[in-house]
Amino acid sequence: MHDLSYFREHLDLFAEMAAKRGATLDLDAFRALDKERRELITKNEQRKAQRNKASDEIARLKKEKQPADSIISEMKQVSELIKQTDERISQLDDTQRELLLTIPNVPHSSVPVGSSEADNVEVRRWGAPPKFDFTPRSHWEVGERAGILDLSAAAKITGARFAVYKSWGARLERALANFFLDVHTREHGYTEVLPPFLVNSASLMGSGQLPKFAADLFKIEGTDFWLTPTSEVELHNLYRDETLAESQLPIFLTAWTACFRSEAGAAGKDTRGILRQHQFQKVELFKFTHPEPSYE
């Protein structure tokens, strides 16, 4: 989530970012909300100071055995007004927080502006697409013919967009996870983590999946637990609400988890196979590096 002070002081920057992204930001609504909130805070601080001063005066009058009923009556009204205003400020705080959570990040200055994939810039290319002298089969056909992939069994056990890996397919999945974990821990200095597969709302909020992607996630009914969409969530939140000393950096972490989300990848909703699934497995890499400026 963006820092409130930075956002407030750089609304033009965020307006420009939204225009480039083709997004809509109701900055006028934010200005009005922010103005009301700040004014209410100022007024309530003044009322609280008034109440504190009156409390001292009431104590003095009682000590001198003088009547204080009028001041006490007035302060009851002030206290009630303070309570009502604090409740309104709390409502505005929640609205403001929800708004800030929906504001996209500001892209780095090197990111090209475009309206479609045609505007993407190719940075580098490795290898060349293979050419076949025959019509290649789809991966689900190859997998099912080889006996390593069973989509119909998965549909029977659970439902559409799940897969059962069998025999060498299951072994290959396990081997690939082990290979990547071993390479990154032995050769690249990563620490392996095995996190819970259930995460809470605060964790998803901290890593940015909530509130934007709530409809794509799986929540456990009657709890604050969600099935993890990626171990990026767990790795990110290992240090949530902590300040790391620069001497602790960099920190390299890696984890293997199942990942649960309804919009996996960019394949269309009618695409068959293992390109678009509710559950898949992934080895995640995560780096906490030395701080850099948040914005250009």
Plain-language structure description:
The chain is built from 9 helices and 7 strands, in the order αααααβαβαββαβαββ. It is mainly alpha-helical and 296 residues long. Among the domains are: 26-101; 167-288, BirA Bifunctional Protein, domain 2, CATH 3.30.930. The strands form 3 sheets. The chain has a 3-stranded mixed β-sheet with strand order 3-6-7. Strands 1-2 form a two-stranded antiparallel ribbon. Helix 3 (27-63) packs antiparallel against helix 4. It is elongated and about 100 Å long. The two termini are 17 Å apart.
Quick synopsis:
This protein has 296 residues and is mainly alpha-helical. Helix content is 45%, strand content 11%. Among the domains are: 26-101; 167-288, BirA Bifunctional Protein, domain 2.
SSE diagram, text form:
Layout: H1 4-9, H2 11-21, H3 27-63, H4 69-101, H5 139-146, E1 149-150, H6 151-157, E2 164-165, H7 168-187, E3 191-193, E4 198-200, H8 201-206, E5 225-227, H9 232-237, E6 251-260, E7 279-288
Parallel strand pairs: 3-6
Antiparallel strand pairs: 1-2, 4-5, 6-7
> What is the string of helix and strand elements?
HHHHHEHEHEEHEHEE
Report how far the terminal alpha carbons are from each other: 17 Å
| Spatial extent as radius of gyration | 28 Å
Low-confidence stretches: none
- What CATH architecture label of the domain at 167-288 applies? 2-Layer Sandwich
CATH superfamily of the domain at 167-288: Bira Bifunctional Protein, Domain 2
Helix content percent band: 40-55%
The coarse silhouette is elongated
Read across the widest sheet, the strand sequence of neighbours is 3-6-7
CATH topology-level name of the domain at 167-288 = BirA Bifunctional Protein, domain 2
Number of strands: 7
Give the oligomeric state of the chains in this entry, treating copies of one chain as homo and distinct chains as hetero: single chain
* SSE-based structural type: mainly alpha
Largest sheet: 3 strands, mixed
Count helical runs. Answer: 9
How would you state the average pLDDT, rounded? 91
Strand content: 5-15%
CATH class category of the domain at 167-288: Alpha Beta
